[in-house]
Amino acid sequence: MKFKTTIAALAFTFACALALNAQDQGYWRAASTTARSITGDITLSETSVILNFMPYTIAPIRVLKTPEVAAVFDADVNSGVKGNLYRLSVPSERRFLHKNTLCGTESVQWMATFVSGRDLQVALFSGLDEPVFTFDALANASTRCATFTYSR
Q1: Cβ neighbours of residue 99 under 8 Å, at least 6 residues apart?
Q2: Strand intervals (E) in the chain
Q3: What residue numbers bound the domain in which 115 lies?
Q4: Which of 19, 77, 91, 150 is most buried (most C-beta within 10 Å)?
Q5: In a 3-state reduction of DSSP, which class is residue 126?
Q6: What total of structural domains would you count in the chain?
């Protein structure tokens, strides 16, 4: 009986982890001025992100803790919210809407996401090293490219 309880608890934990990662998945409409003028709508799946009708492979790296989400997206640090960090590669020469790029002359290497209600916020970063998600580090970071807002 103890074995079945342990298996059930593990299965529940795994299902919750999948649900957390899946909250940012699906189709999202561009809501912010920057999203409407650069990326257009976005679609996220387990393995890709589609920006301006162009798919890019993504790899989930880790769940962002509440203080990290607060630092990146100006969320309430006491809210208990979490976000996701992904690895991707969008070349600097790739042009989007209105001939815009995502990160100037730098390639995008990292994507952080945060869902709040019916809104998705996405922050993009350049650089080979994983971004440091603290208020101080982000205030002095040259690797933060842009933040976009989408809605359902």
Answers
A1: none
A2: 26-30, 42-44, 48-51, 54-57, 59-64, 83-90, 108-116, 119-126, 144-151
A3: 2-151
A4: 150
A5: strand
A6: 1
